[in-house]
Design goal:
The chain is an all-alpha fold. It has 14 helices and two strands; from the N terminus they run H-H-H-H-H-H-H-H-E-H-H-E-H-H-H-H. It has a two-stranded antiparallel sheet.
Length: 325
């Protein structure tokens, strides 16, 4: 009996420890700004209706924020004074977008509940809403993040997984943020929507291993098609769908593409070609969209919990592009 009580007590302690490991919770604004979630959803819906690609752009902003200094809206800061913006980093320059949508959401929220909702939380909500609007899963977004006082250009250059990184390099970047191999495969599935620039995958088309040949793990007829708009030189900014099958629909086509050797980026295709464990996950998600959706929701919550600023740390910016004085 005593042993049973001790076991139950230890279990309760474990549950409480998990509950207290984060200061974020979905009801954070229920009293201070009850209309916050509706305002975010309304502006995002309008932006995505105007341009379907915006769903992927807003989802990507949240990723690129969280992998640098945690989910603290540092990516939104413009150059000013002592701040060197992350917008100029290699992963973000000429590709990170959606800043005007965040500005519009913030302006609406400042009107409704001044200096209450953080820019970091706006991005977390916008990422969820974008996923849902594109046909993907929904999840309760834990809230209560605060905004940073600074940015990290070096962190943005070093910490965000790159299209030409090796499998081990990308996995290490995930692990350094407290994310595991399951999160790596699952969150990569966000490439079921959106675009990539020619410069992100050109090396796969022309000289992948220094022998002048395209990447052997890329379907050769697909490579021929890609070369038409991604020449050996020039056309760096030409855009290509990450998922040519259903480019604006959040589904599991991405994983089916990897099996068919039509993953656009090297960082995508390696999930199927370079690791037995990730290959199995790819197969499972390709067969079972619901399984992918369930895990994507869990992994997004986990990613959104990377070292957030809470309590009295950071601030609530009035304008997302600059630190409030």
């Amino acid at each position: 009996m005593a042993r049973t009580s001790i076991t139950m007590l230890m279990g309760l302690i474990s549950i409480l420890a998990l509950a207290n490991c984060s200061d974020l919770y979905p009801q954070f604004y229920d009293h201070s700004c009850p209309q916050a979630k509706d305002i975010v959803q309304s502006v995002v819906a309008k932006a995505v209706a105007k341009e379907a690609r915006m769903a992927a752009s807003l989802l990507r902003l949240h990723f690129h924020d969280c992998f640098v200094k945690g989910c603290d809206a540092s990516i939104l800061l413009d150059n000013s004074g002592s701040i060197i913006s992350e917008k100029g980093s290699v992963p973000n320059r000429n590709s990170a977008r959606g800043f005007e949508v965040i500005d519009e959401i913030k302006a609406a929220l400042e009107k409704a509940c001044p200096q209450t909702v953080s820019c970091a939380d706006i991005m977390a909500l916008a990422a969820r809403d974008s996923t849902v609007l594109a046909g993907g899963p929904s999840w309760e977004v834990p809230l209560g993040r605060r905004d940073s006082f600074g940015a990290s250009l070096s962190g943005s250059n070093q910490n965000i997984p790159a299209p030409n990184n090796t499998f081990q390099t990308i996995l290490t970047k995930f692990k350094l943020k407290g994310l595991d191999i399951v999160d790596f495969v699952t969150l990569s599935g966000s490439h079921t929507i959106g675009n990539a620039r020619c410069t992100s995958f050109r090396q796969r088309l022309y000289n992948n291993t220094g022998n002048g040949q395209p990447d052997f793990s890329l379907d050769q007829s697909y490579a021929v098609k890609l070369r038409q708009n991604c020449p050996r030189s020039g056309g760096d900014q030409n855009l290509f769908f990450l998922d040519p099958v259903s480019p604006t629909k959040f589904d599991n086509s991405y994983y089916k593409n990897l099996i068919a050797k039509t993953g656009l980026l090297s960082s995508d295709e390696i999930l199927f070609t370079q690791n037995q464990q990730t290959m199995e996950f790819v197969k499972q998600y390709a067969e079972n969209q619901e399984l992918f959706f369930q895990q994507f929701a869990k992994s997004m919550i986990k990613m959104g919990n990377i070292t957030p600023l809470t309590g009295k740390s950071g601030q609530i910016r009035k304008v997302c592009r600059k630190v409030s004085s």
